[in-house]
Write a structure and sequence with these properties.
T9SS type A sorting domain-containing protein, Immunoglobulin-like, 1% helix, 5-stranded antiparallel beta sheet, Ig-like_fold, 49 strands
Length: 668
């Protein structure tokens, strides 16, 4: 079966189950999330798991969610381990493999002696398992005996990938020790013919710090590498190199890399995306208009952009010195963008023209002109209470874009949807929509990442610091789905699930204003649904339902609908534990003091029964009713034995026709 075919077989019916407070992707001690498309509307997540810190160090975990916001069948609820070696790892990036799977990159891995900090990549299928030809802990990217870091990659169009990293030379000055190297790996993890194992130097220039920013496929089997370079002025300038599939620089491109903009200025926080026609669009913050006497450490800049064709020339309509996207008064910085489908892009940045950081957006067409309906110097994205920072964008597939950002004053996150015409999409207020539908300001959301899902929607991931029951910040990873006219339309979200071999109890939370005639449905395949009955109303915000018709060891999906067939709460899979057997484990410890006699046993079903303590003549010395206990393992303390004399006794467990007996020595 092909990777894409396997992905299709793993996905279940796409009903919406996204929690209005953010669907939890990973629990406590999870940080730095990234999200990328996986095909068919599903998405992959990756993050650093810090539960082993400081015992072992950070690990890398991944998750695969369906369009419904549930783990793909076969994936654990908390995600799968991408690398859990004994070494500490720093999560670098993710990249789809083009076949329904995923490449995961990390660095600062110290497992190889004498190699310093190494970078690695691992390939996973849609089922979360490493590809058979790949080592269990990934492929080491660099083979030179010094530090490799900040690995990034993109597909080569043949299920393999280009991987680029920063390589540190130990004999170079600290400021200029990083150089970018690249390598192409085949789908089986081996180095492609023509590429050195040590990697190809992206630039032949001998000097200048090279700081890797982006790796973008050229759509023709090659890749663009974008980096900052300080070789000339001490200021970072933007350079690009195009690499062919055979281990060399693309014909016509300078071996030292192409300088994007000849204007001497500080260019920072850039982004780069494909133009959809084998070329590249770049955007950056530029301080060329910095007033004399204003030190470079003081934020100052405007937003400029460029479009490069496959031969390295600037596209028609795009000035050599950069296209001014926003040159309004104030400071503009932290530019990000996504393709618009016409060879141009939708761009966003933080802007202080009104003396407070706000998020502005602009669309530039492939010909270097503003799209009709978009104002000069950009459109205000939303009016949040504090300072807007860290914008991220994803294409909506129709010339517009989904946008998310952080209110840096209150650490709340917001979203917006712009049409290609520059108007807010229907259903989206001009102020923006909070990603988490809660009133408290105590839940902080930071570290946003966003991706288009390929179906006209977008998925946002963030680092969430809401408190647990003890009042401690969890550091979890949450996600939300953005659709054409707002957040995904969920009225109720599943809050808790309790499952035994005899029953499943579910509790839903959320608004159900105007709803009546609700019904709970169950499915064993995600396609055919059986109506079970109406939920019980616990209070104005909670509903509950207990299913006592389950079979032990079976997996079911549950959802809630209205009696007229509308979906109210999306599907959630629940694993029913296998039935436990009737057994008496006995007393622990043994011998046991009369005041500390503790007995362990398991029941296969609920029913009348007793646990008895008998002396050697058969007379009952102590007794406990077990009729209220359900199936499963149980441990109880026999307080009734506190006054017994020392000696040998028998424990007897009985329930219906079942009997079990064990000897125990009791001491005072």
């Amino acid at each position: 079966m092909t990777g894409q075919g396997l992905l299709t077989s793993l996905l279940i019916t796409a009903t919406f189950a996204w929690d209005p407070t953010g669907t939890q992707v990973a629990g406590r001690s999870s940080y730095y999330p990234l999200v990328v498309p996986a095909g068919n509307g599903s998405v992959f997540f990756g993050w650093e798991d810090w539960r082993a810190v400081p015992t072992r160090g950070a690990d890398i975990n991944i998750q695969h969610l369906t369009p419904a916001g549930m783990p793909v069948i076969g994936w654990p609820t908390g995600g799968a381990s991408a690398c859990a070696s004994s070494s500490d790892e720093q999560f670098s990036s993710l990249a789809p493999d083009g076949a329904g799977g995923l490449y995961v990159f990390w660095s600062k891995d110290q497992r190889a002696e004498g190699h310093g900090l190494d970078a690695y990549v691992q390939r996973f299928g849609p089922d979360g398992l490493p590809y058979p030809s790949w080592p269990s802990y990934g492929v080491g990217i660099g083979t030179r005996p010094w530090d490799d870091q900040l690995a990034r990659g993109c597909t080569d169009g043949q299920n393999g990938l280009f991987v680029v990293w920063e390589d540190s030379s130990p004999d170079a000055p600290f400021f200029s020790q990083h150089n970018c190297r690249a390598k192409r790996l085949l789908a089986d993890g081996s180095t492609a013919p023509g590429w050195p194992d040590t990697g190809l130097a992206v630039s032949a220039s001998p000097g200048g710090a090279q700081s890797l920013r982006r790796v973008v496929s050229d759509g023709q089997g090659g890749a663009y590498v974008v980096w900052w370079d300080a070789r000339n002025t001490g200021h970072y300038e933007i350079y690009v190199q195009r690499l062919g599939p055979n281990g060399s620089v693309a014909p016509g491109w300078p071996t030292e890399g192409l300088l994007v903009c000849p204007v001497v200025s500080l260019k920072i926080l850039l982004d780069a995306v494909s133009d959809g026609d084998h070329g590249l669009v770049l955007v950056w913050d530029d301080d060329r208009e910095r007033p004399a006497g204003v030190d470079w450490t003081t934020p100052y800049g405007d937003i400029y952009a460029a479009r490069l064709r496959p031969n390295g020339a600037h596209a028609a309509g795009w000035p050599l010195e950069g296209l001014p996207v926003c040159v309004s008064p104030g400071v503009q910085w932290n530019a990000r963008m996504c393709p618009d489908g016409t060879g141009g892009a939708v761009m966003a940045w933080t802007d202080t023209r009104n003396h407070l950081g706000e998020i502005y957006v602009q669309r530039v067409l492939g010909n270097g002109q503003l799209a009709p309906g978009w104002p000069v110097n950009g459109l205000l994205a939303g009016t949040t209470p504090g300072e807007g920072v860290d914008p991220e964008l994803a294409s909506d597939g129709a010339g517009g874009a989904y946008l998310c950002w952080v209110d840096d004053t209150y650490y709340r996150s917001y979203a917006q949807h712009f049409l290609g015409s520059g108007a807010f999409a229907p259903g989206w207020p001009a102020a923006g929509v909070p990603l988490v539908d809660v009133a408290t300001m105590g839940w902080q959301q930071t570290g946003l990442d966003i991706t288009a899902d390929g179906a006209g929607h977008a998925i946002v991931a963030w680092q969430d610091l809401r408190n647990d029951a003890a009042g401690n910040p969890q550091g979890s990873i949450r996600a939300q789905k953005l659709i054409t006219d707002g957040l995904v339309p969920v009225q109720l979200a599943l809050r808790t699930v309790e499952a035994t071999s005899e029953l499943v109890k579910l509790t839903w939370w959320g608004s159900r204003e105007g709803e009546s005639g609700l019904v709970v449905e169950r499915s064993d395949d995600g396609a055919a649904w059986q109506r079970l009955g109406s939920p019980l109303e616990l209070d104005t915000e909670q509903l509950s339902f207990t299913d006592v018709t389950v079979a032990p060891g079976t997996r079911y999906a549950y959802r809630m609908s209205s009696t007229d067939g509308r979906l109210i709460a999306g599907a959630q899979w629940v694993d029913v534990p296998a039935a436990t057997r009737f057994a008496l484990a006995g007393a622990t410890p043994n011998p046991a003091r009369t005041s500390e006699l503790t007995v362990s046993f398991s029941l296969a079903a609920r029913g009348a029964g007793a646990l008895e303590l008998l002396d050697l003549s058969g007379r009952r010395a102590a007794w406990r009713d077990i009729g209220t206990l359900g199936p499963g393992a149980h441990t109880i303390r026999m307080h009734e034995a506190a006054g017994l004399a020392s000696g040998v006794y028998w424990l007897r467990l009985s329930q219906g026709p079942n009997r079990a007996q064990s000897r125990v020595v009791v001491i005072r």
